[in-house]
TrEMBL record:
Keywords of this entry: Cell membrane, Membrane, Transmembrane, Transmembrane helix, Transport
Membrane-protein topology: Multi-pass membrane protein
InterPro entries: NCS2, UacT-like, Xan_ur_permease
Segments passing through the bilayer: 12-35, 41-59, 66-88, 94-115, 122-143, 155-174, 181-202, 222-245, 309-330, 336-354, 366-385, 397-417
Protein's recorded name: Purine permease
Subcellular location: Cell membrane
Length: 438
């Protein structure tokens, strides 16, 4: 009987890993390729990301005196950090990325209690607007990958377009006709099938898989000792704030599903766990981490609300992160295949943000202005990155990213218009806010 229970927990843990796997590997692939990392470095980035996802999940699953929210939450690398990490790495070098992540993590840990007390400053108009901006800012990256990747020699070729649109169509067909758990894996299955088709077309090089070792230990500061630059640090602190806003909605959803009320102290413990996950990501050259919402949907689907399942999922992720060959398989995914999948993901972010905005009272002119100005600036900076080219570099790194600019605008305008007035409550079903991580 005990063995049967263990096998059930293990199988449900595998389901959680499969549900978040696509989102977990996409961030290192997008960042690593944009920074022109070698195949070996990219494989390390994917493997250490999986391992750190597992450790971060453990931190959040167990409720301690100061750490962990004690809900069945799974953590993964945040899409919010993609463009800021690329910008920091391009201007200051890779070590500055990890210096800023460590500093942001320490900031979140220290300010966790403060964040838990001001959570009402992040009503649906802010969360929905921020999520919408994240999707809009990331869509151009997905479109470039559909054509073969930026600076690709065969950019926009018929082969690339056929692959990317084929993956897109496959994902849509699965969403139309598949049911249950298979439907939730549509993006991951689309990537797998697209890569197999690309292999038959001669577009996949398996040499990196053959050369990868079967086992390795995580190496702190793999890309060198971190450097601490004021501009990147402020940028990553803002990224951390946006991550906290996103995760708050997921915590609320898990609380409702598990019939486990949470208070300010619980939120503070959850924020500290995410801050510590940031620090671990910086030390081991991984990523900022947040709570994945598609795994919340899996908790609702399976009706299993125990944290033992996500602890098992964390163990599986740690195991996979110790095997470079597993990570090497992710690095062979062609850009066109990646593009077909990410267009779906990023588009879902936009639609999820719009859905969250349904909770907003748009009869109030102030809410209309918050959304209008924030989306306009966020999308505008993404489309015209040279808008702030004349500003000092330390300031440009902050406002030169559409996600950061738009999110800051939403937060500050909400404070300006609504401070001192009754705040809107958080949406009762915020889980859709991050469906794009599936």
């Amino acid at each position: 009987m005990r063995e049967t229970k263990r096998m059930r927990i293990f199988s449900l843990g595998i389901q959680h890993v499969l549900a978040m796997y696509a989102g977990a590997i996409l961030v290192p692939l997008l960042v690593g390729r944009a920074l022109n990392l070698t195949a070996e470095q990219l494989a390390y980035l994917v493997s250490i990301d999986l391992l750190t996802c597992g450790v971060a999940t453990w931190l959040q699953a167990r409720k301690g005196k100061y750490l962990g929210i004690g809900l069945p939450a799974v953590l993964g690398s945040s899409f919010v950090a993609v463009t800021p990490m690329i910008a920091i790495g391009s201007q200051y070098g890779i070590p500055a990325i990890y210096g800023s992540i460590i500093a942001a993590g320490i900031f979140i840990v220290i300010c966790a209690v403060f964040f838990s007390k001001i959570v009402k400053l992040f009503p649906p108009v802010v969360i929905g607007t921020v999520v919408t901006i994240i999707g809009l800012a990331l869509i151009p990256t997905g479109i470039k990958n559909m054509a073969g990747g930026a600076n690709s020699e065969n950019f926009g070729s018929l082969d690339n377009l056929a692959l990317s649109f084929g993956v897109l169509l496959f994902i849509l067909v699965l969403n139309r006709y598949a049911r249950g758990f298979v439907k939730s894996l549509a993006v991951l299955l689309g990537i797998i099938v697209g890569t197999l088709v690309a292999a038959f077309m001669g577009k996949v090089n398996f040499s990196s898989v053959q050369e990868a070792s079967w086992f390795h230990l995580p190496q702190p500061f793999y890309f060198g000792w971190p450097t601490f630059e004021i501009g990147p640090i402020i940028t990553m602190i803002i990224v951390g704030t946006v991550v906290i806003i996103e995760s708050t909605g997921v915590f609320m959803a898990l609380s409702r599903i598990c019939d486990q009320p949470i208070n300010e102290k619980d939120l503070a413990r959850g924020y500290r766990a995410e801050g510590l996950a940031f620090v671990l990501g910086g030390i081991f050259n991984a990523f900022p981490y947040n709570t994945f919402a598609q795994n919340v949907g899996l908790v609702q689907l399976s009706k299993v609300k125990t944290t033992n399942v996500v602890v098992a999922a964390g163990g599986i992720l740690v195991f996979l992160g110790l095997i470079p060959k597993v990570a090497a398989f992710a690095t062979i995914i062609p850009s066109a295949v990646l593009g077909g999948a990410t267009v779906v993901l990023f588009g879902m972010v936009v639609s999820s943000g719009i859905k969250m905005l349904q909770h907003v009272d748009f009869s109030k002119q102030s809410n209309l202005l918050i959304v209008a100005c924030s989306v306009s600036l966020g999308l505008g900076v993404t489309a015209v990155p040279d808008l702030f080219a004349q500003l000092p570099q330390s300031i440009r790194i902050i406002v030169g990213d559409g996600i950061i600019t738009g999110s800051l605008c939403a937060i500050l305008l909400n404070i300006f218009f609504n401070l001192g007035f009754k705040k809107e409550s958080l949406p009762v079903q915020p889980v859709q806010a991050q469906e794009a991580h599936t």
